[in-house]
Write a structure and sequence with these properties.
CATH superfamily of the largest domain: tricorn interacting facor f3 domain
Distance between the termini: 41 Å
CATH class of the largest domain: Mainly Beta
Number of domains: 4
Strand content: 35-45%
Number of helices: 10
Shape: elongated
CATH architecture of the largest domain: Sandwich
Oligomer: single chain
Radius of gyration: 26 Å
Structural class: alpha+beta
Strand order of the largest sheet: 5-4-8-2-1-11-14-13
CATH topology of the largest domain: Immunoglobulin-like
Length: about 525
Amino acid sequence: MMKFFAFFLFLLAFQTAITAQNYKQQFNEIDVRHYNLAIEVNDSTNSIQAKMMIALSFKQLVTEFNLDLVQKDSTGKGMLITSVFQNNDSVSFTHNHNKITIQPNAIKTDSIYTFEITYNGVPKDGLIIGENLHGDRTFFADNWPNRAHNWFPCVDHPSDKATVEFTIKAPNHYQAIANGYLFEETNLSQDLKLYHYKSAEQLPTKVMVIGIARFAVQHLGETHNIPVSTWVYPQTKEQGFYDFANAKNILDFFIEKFGQYPYQKLANVQSKTQFGGMENAGAIFYAEKYIKGERNFEDTIAHEIVHQWFGNSASETDWPHLWLSEGFATYFTDLYIQKTDGEEAFQQRLKEEREEVLNFYKKKQTPIIDTENTNLMSLLNANSYEKGAWVLHMLRKKLGDETFWTGIKTYYEKFKLNNATTNDFKNVMSEVSGENLDSFFTQWLQKAGHPVLKTSWLYYQNKLRILIDQTQENAFNFPIDVEIIYTDGTSEIKTIEVNEIAIPYEIETKGEVKEVKFDPNTWLLFALID
């Protein structure tokens, strides 16, 4: 199992690297406005029959342009295109190296054109067809990071967002879930049913999704006019309904923190995703094994709900800025745990996440914004998640709660249903706070590492002398809280601004010092050595 998974990741790394290299040319040439996919699945084969209508505009006059779609290979998997039409006229195309190269008829840069691509085949990946843990046949999309082009033609990169609709034909013993609202549900025959979903908001392909399976569905009602539902396998109905019962309360918490929820519904879905949770817009997929009726993955539910704002709506412009998705989801989940489970649980999560960062650095010395890594799967690491969360935590301490939350809301409002870079986020937080945050963002996000401190202290005649020695190669600038504990049982906290590799600090005290604790309230990402 482990060897197979490692090989699978190798193949994904190869695929994602190739796509990442080529998307810029696509993005400079075209802007996809809308995907309209009609797809039919069956129980006799894993082959899909599909027709994609893509509405797009041209940013420049070109004689040809590319879309991503994995082609059929010697294994029999992949897609075979049978025709391409532009506004009802046949156009020339080639399908090589997992790219469709289309030669459009006369075009202008101020118009929108519709291309109809008819194809069929067995998905190599992206749309996972097989048996669930109960032996029932299921069909689940699993697109992250750029696996959507395994089953539909697209620009498979988060920078090119579009609205999407899915018309799904499936045997009538299945139910179907997808992004957006259910526009039509029709029994076509005794054996075939149609579901038509439409999403009114622009999405990146990574979170465009369908799921087809036997489901038990529970409607939890609405919060802030957003319908919330649970979709689980019938065999685990009671457990699943219990596990997701708190989804409305979680959604409430984040609506109050961030503002209006960006999509038309929130559905939590038991699925075949390879991830613990996958934040598909409005239809979050969870690993099927999680559903046990123990309600022990509420932090995962919170994490994926945060992504509806950060990652899905306000999306990273390019993969090196993934922390704008994962770091945000990690930290705001921590704050949800602080609200529900208390300060001690919050502090424990911060400490555990700090250890994850320190341990990851021992294996790989890279910055959060890693522009050299083309293996997108490997970006799902402690830098993107835990270190990204810690950057937000330290930024909150630096700016104060009121300014921090004003900045978060301002950033989201500015980039909702759009794309942003780290620099965009920095500029918003600088504008809101009135502070120059260049050095903060540079040292924590663009450089590898963290402060590694060796400390000592000496008390003499109401003076405390503290030596803080940064033992790593490059100096960091940071504040560190120091708790001074006196022999009479009282204590106080002083903040030291550290900006040198090694320098002594002298503090006036109120009495004899018994003990000194560094970062007592867990506000700094650092390692402390003896």
